Amino acid sequence: MKDTMNNDEDVNSKVVSSNDAKTANLSIRQVTSVRSGPLPTPKEFAEYEKVCPGAADRIISLTERQSKHRQEIEVIEVKTAARDSLLGLVFAFVFCMTSICGAIYLISNNHTITGTILGGVGLTTVVTAFIQGKTQTK
Predict the structure, then answer these.
(1) Which residues pair with 17 in a beta bridge?
(2) Could you report the per-residue pLDDT of 61-104, keeping only the tens digit for each?
(3) Which residues contact 104 (CB under 8 A, 6 or more apart)?
(4) Distance between alpha carbon 44 and the CA centroid of its chain, in Å?
């Protein structure tokens, strides 16, 4: 959390004029405050409490619940990604073994060209999927 405002002066502009009525100096000061985070500043908490007693506790509990919810969703996402990866490996293995067994069966029954094509296509598909999967994760 960053707070770049050093003091609470509410100075938008200040006009300083000289003795000469035709000459006037204008000085403008802009104050910008940047803050990042789910909770308000302590000063804002105090203002919330003045307006609505107990508001600070509710804001903190809301932030805690939201943080817990976000963490639970992240855990679910990680588990789902692991499950999808495992299912992908299982299905690729089943597909590859089916292609190889089909190719062996066809070749042994004098369908060498068809068996070779089936085995080659099956293996090529699985190898291509693994290569593309590795390049996409990088």
Answers:
(1) 24
(2) 999 999 999 999 999 999 999 999 888 888 888 888 899 999 99
(3) 115, 119
(4) 28
